[in-house]
Amino acid sequence: MPKTKPSKVLSTKQNEPPYMKTDYDIPKFGYKAALVMLSGIMLVWLGLPSLLKWLGIDYYWGMILIGGFLCGFIVAFTQYFIQTKQGFSRRFWLVTVLWSLFIGCLILLFLVSGVLM
Fold first, then answer.
1. pLDDT at 9
2. Cβ atoms within 10 A of the Cβ of 92, count?
3. What is the pTM of this model?
4. How many CB atoms sit inside 10 A of residue 105's CB?
5. What backbone phi and psi angles, to 5 degrees, belong to 2?
6. Backbone torsions φ then ψ of 109, nearest 5 degrees
7. Which of 75, 108, 115 is nearest to 94 (CA)?
8. How open is the CA angle 72-74-71, to the nearest 5 degrees?
9. What is the distance between the alpha carbons of residues 97 and 85, in angstroms, rounded to a whole number?
């Protein structure tokens, strides 16, 4: 009987459950990251208006700038610290800035349309 070579240890990507496999290399969020992201963004959206009023900061610009940055930071934090544990890097700050701009534009749209007052 011919000897067989011992099998190599599979990489972590091959050990992923089938529902985590995709054809593309896209970021995935687990339950813990999704919970942190959802609770953090809800805290910003519900708590920041009261904090801005208490500090006497203009509501519209405070929500757009501070709220957008905090929400973008939360999204990047969950991806780079909870999911991948890469920590602070240049890509972390790039993701933070891009998400902050995107969410800031959404907040501006909500403020202009009257959804947020």
1. 45
2. 18
3. 0.69
4. 12
5. -70, 145
6. -60, -40
7. 75
8. 40
9. 19
